[in-house]
Structures are given as C-alpha cells and as structure tokens.
Amino acid sequence: QEDKPGQSGxxxxxxxxxxxxxxxxxxxxxxxxxxxxxxxxxxxxADVAEQHRLLLVVPINSEKTDLGREDRIVVTDAxxxxxxxxxxxxxRILLVAKAEQSQLCTQLLxxxxxxxxxxxxxxxxxxxxxxxPSEQLARKSPSFLIFRDAAQSPQSQALAxxxxxxxxxxxxxxxxxxxxxxxxxxxxQQIAA
Length: 193
Fold this sequence. Notes:
It contains 6 helices and 8 strands, in the order E-E-E-H-E-H-E-H-E-H-E-H-E-H. By secondary structure, it is α/β, with parallel strands linked by helices. It has an 8-stranded mixed β-sheet, with helices on both faces.
C-alpha cells in the first residue's frame, strides 16, 4: 500500500499487486472508498488485484469526505500521481462508484478530455444520463456494468432501467446484472472476470 500527497490538500492511496512496478497493470479507481479504511478495502479487493494485476487507486479529497461530482480534479490528479513511472494497460482502466459517486463517475467517463476513461461499474446505482444526447453517450464508446439492487425503491428501479435503455439505444455497451448474493462471486471478482 502506498500513500501519496496530492495537490491542494488532496491525497491518494494505492495498492500495487506484488510490488511489481515494472509489470503492466490495469487500474481500478475506487471512487466509493475514499472514507473507507484501507484495511477494509484490501480485504475486499487485494486478492482480485493480485490475481489480475490490478492497481487499486483510492482518491481522497482535502475534506476527507465521500467524493462528489465536484471532485473530478481530485480523481484525475490521483490517477496521474499513481500512474507516474508505471506501465499501465490503458484498456483496463475502470471506475467503480456507488450511488454517492454516480454523477462524478458519469462526468468522468463522458468527459472528452479524459480519453482513457471508458469503463465504469456502478454498484447499487446507475449512470445519470437522462437528457444527454445519444451522440455524447456513444462518442467515447464507453462500457457500463450496472449492479442492480433488489431493495431499490420502484422509482429508483425505473430510473436505473431508463438509464440502461438510454445507453443501449445510444449503442453503448451495458450489462445490468443483479447485485451478487453472499453465495455468488463478489463484485470485485465479477469485475475482474
């Protein structure tokens, strides 16, 4: 585990599999874990990171609070800081977000000046794409994995279903499985598969 200071009081911690800095790795940016203790994150993600050579990145804003849509620069600075001197597999850069980071994740994924960000996983949430033109959704050829939550309200379920339809209508690759039960592979394992 590495901790690095960022700009303007922001910071980032990361986990490098096998301490292999010279090895090409994928990157998983855990937007939803900025306030989670590193030990808890590593319990969930370390084995998957080791197995699949994934660099885990956890951006932390200067307030040490959950990331929100105003934290785009925090995330891009964190990724740039951790990526220095490393060989990254640019086809395997992935954002992971829960409901609180849904807008931030969508904003990052669709931003034209961030061409390497093309894949996102939404855990018990969905991308906020209502009203966006189809051309904007399809321009970067993003991919979305949206883990549904059976406990969502009917309104939330309808919004998630509409987001999935909007993405598919725009020609965007979208997969919408249910959130895994305890007996099934974890979200981390399913993402890596």
